[in-house]
Amino acid sequence: MREAAPGPLALESRIPPGASKGVVEAVTGLYTQGVIGRKEALSREWASEMGEDIDVALQEALSRPGGAVGRGPKRYYVEIHPEQLRGWLELVDHPWVRMVCESVLGPDYQIVELGFDVPGPGAVNQPWHRDFPIPEDTRVDGRLTSLAFNATAVDTEEDMGPFEIAPTTQWDLPDGFEHGMFPPKSAYARYEALAERKYPRMGDISARSALTIHRGTRNRSAKSRPVLVLGVDAPGAGNADHHSMAVTRSFYDALPQRVRNHLVCPVVNELTPITQKHSIEGLMMGEA
After folding, report:
1. Can you list the domains of the chain with their CATH numbers?
2. Residue 12 burial class via C-beta count within 10 angstroms: exposed 0-12, middle 13-18, buried 19 and up
3. Residue 170: DSSP 8-state
4. Fewest 10 Å CB contacts: which of 22, 141, 163, 266?
5. Could you tell me which residues come within 8 angstroms of residue 73 by beta carbon, excluding any fewer than 6 positions away?
6. What is the mean pLDDT of residues 125-149?
């Protein structure tokens, strides 16, 4: 598997002169490893409340057609509106989240997605994948144009199907990839050799390139492992077209201007339940 040019070779040009230690670490980590994290960024109480909101949203979504998308057996993805998550503002306005977005995606970054994944008991290994095909800006210019932030609602244990990621693979060219997202099984040995399992705890936040090859693993426990997903783009990346979140006028007007500057979703008088459209066909079956 070849690396996309120029990839990490362009790292020095991505770090502005006089950048703080935090900026250097964030840019270096995402351009080299493809994933970074911040321990105890938010409180355990925040994460517990998030878990309650996820549970309410999941039950509502499962009660209607198109409310949830299967990501494999016993595994669901649901996109929600920011107003369905009481701690949304605290997350998107967190200094570390803002710093990472500004440093990697630029000052005009766009908040495009809010959702969650829930691998329940019995969820199986997902196929290795990236979240969407590698864009031209990344393949040709070595520029990351999208980030996925994750926050867990539980303390992750070994038997709960931990998230697994293969660092440095955000630069892999899609040779033989189905739909530009699913590498051939002949490449699995490489990903398994690179793989790192993540065991985040309540209050931790991670950020990754959505292009870094990853998968959810088998959940052998009797517990679900809900994980929040916040998607953020550089201008022009275009992922907002694949999502459906909206905010009401009263909610929007109450936000700090520094947050409103990064919202590109519709501002509406009344929210309507989201019919999921971010389906990834290759994840529906999962691996044996």
Report:
1. 22-282 (2.60.120.620)
2. exposed
3. G
4. 266
5. 122, 123, 124, 285, 286
6. 94
